[in-house]
């Protein structure tokens, strides 16, 4: 089901009226009235730059100069081995408050390097790209009385299926994609007619890349603020989806990642601020389709890899620690000698959250939500308290 403008305005009006009521009137009705939001970062986020493994002896050789380059914000040390990128300040605060759980060396069961096939796998919940329905939709169908919401102009594969799902896309101004800009720079750098034009607007793009001005940082925070507005309503959808693009950083990645991490951090804060009434009953899962190569390539970026990082955030999360098995990034420890080896199937993370947070039974997870996953056990210990299935 698509949420048309009239229904959205009516719902927005209802939310505005509800915001005038005492906060308890908006709060989730019980500890079983939980919320789950999936945030998919399309393009393959560089997990080794988001969560930097300083304690690994291989990191300094592969990434040391890159991580300490001029203009890079100081990383937020989490423990003796890992640090969050300096732009992830709010996420570091959540970690300190034990409401953020990074999961290292994680990937969907698809282990090749196609964006489209890997994203399909993350969304359809199978081990391949052939599924035409999404596991989030199957979750909506499996939770009695629940509704689904996708903050997207087009219904994403993760939410396609028989269950009722509304879509909504906030009106946001278009802005120049910094990755497209990088590609155009390379294409026209030697063109005598166009090189000067591109050079003239370079400073504006630099500001965008650094997250210092312009329209930078608006898209994902707006989308997540919208998700919070809908999902925190007493009768709001319990299962939501938000997506973001622009994470495919093959060239000149430092500036782009500074901006993208800033957007991600602001987006998570916008969701928390907008969903305070339900935050303690909420899990936000932030995932991407694969990691990237461990070494920096010749153009200041990275190429498609395997193992990445996922984050769980929310008041229901048992955070303040690092989850997953770290395989190391010495040459002999890398997958194909080039990228982080995945040690956790992403479906294990999802199954653990769905069972213990939404109360979906193990049998339903295997038979309906994640077919082909009988040998993939749910991760345990992800939440402060489990909801009975």
TrEMBL record:
Keywords in alphabetical order, please. Answer: Signal
Indicate yes or no for the key word RNA-binding: no
Among InterPro entries, the record links this protein to:
DUF1501 (IPR010869), TAT_signal (IPR006311)
Q: Which domain of life is it from?
A: Bacteria
**Residues making up the signal peptide according to the UniProt record:** 1-27
What this protein is called in its record is DUF1501 domain-containing protein
């Amino acid at each position: 089901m698509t949420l048309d403008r009239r229904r959205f305005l009516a719902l927005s009006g209802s939310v505005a009226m509800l915001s005038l009521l005492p906060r308890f009137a908006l709060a989730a009705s019980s500890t079983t009235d939980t919320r789950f939001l999936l945030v998919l970062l399309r393009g393959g986020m560089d997990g080794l730059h988001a969560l930097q493994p300083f304690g690994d002896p291989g990191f300094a050789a592969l990434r040391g100069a890159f991580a300490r380059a001029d203009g890079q914000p100081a990383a937020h040390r989490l423990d003796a081995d890992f640090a969050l990128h300096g732009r992830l300040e709010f996420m570091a605060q959540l970690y300190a408050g034990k409401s953020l759980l990074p999961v290292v060396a994680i990937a969907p069961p698809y282990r090749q390097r196609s964006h489209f096939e890997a994203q399909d796998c993350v969304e359809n919940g199978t081990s391949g790209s052939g599924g035409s329905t999404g596991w989030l939709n199957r979750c909506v169908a499996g939770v009695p009385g629940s509704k689904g919401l996708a903050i997207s102009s087009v219904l994403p594969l993760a939410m396609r299926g028989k269950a009722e799902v509304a879509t909504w896309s906030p009106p946001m101004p278009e802005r120049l994609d910094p990755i497209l800009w990088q590609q155009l720079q390379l294409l026209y750098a030697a063109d005598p007619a166009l090189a000067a034009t591109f050079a003239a607007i370079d400073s504006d793009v630099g500001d965008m890349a650094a997250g210092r001005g312009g329209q930078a940082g608006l898209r994902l925070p707006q989308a997540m603020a919208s998700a919070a507005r809908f999902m925190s309503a007493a009768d709001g959808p319990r299962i939501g989806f938000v997506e973001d693009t622009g994470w495919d950083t093959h060239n000149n990645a430092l500036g782009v990642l500074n901006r993208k991490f800033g957007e991600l951090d602001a987006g998570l804060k916008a969701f928390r601020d907008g969903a305070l009434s339900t935050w303690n009953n909420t899990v936000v899962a932030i995932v991407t389709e694969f990691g990237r190569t461990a070494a920096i390539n010749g153009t200041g970026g990275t190429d498609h890899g395997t193992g990445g990082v996922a984050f769980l955030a929310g008041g229901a999360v048992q955070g303040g620690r690092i989850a997953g098995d770290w395989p190391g990034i010495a040459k002999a420890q890398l997958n194909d000698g080039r990228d982080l080896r995945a040690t956790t199937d992403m479906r294990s993370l999802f199954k653990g959250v769905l069972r213990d947070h939404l109360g979906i039974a193990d049998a339903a997870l295997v038979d309906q939500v994640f077919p082909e996953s009988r040998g993939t056990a749910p991760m345990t210990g992800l939440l402060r308290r489990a909801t009975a299935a």
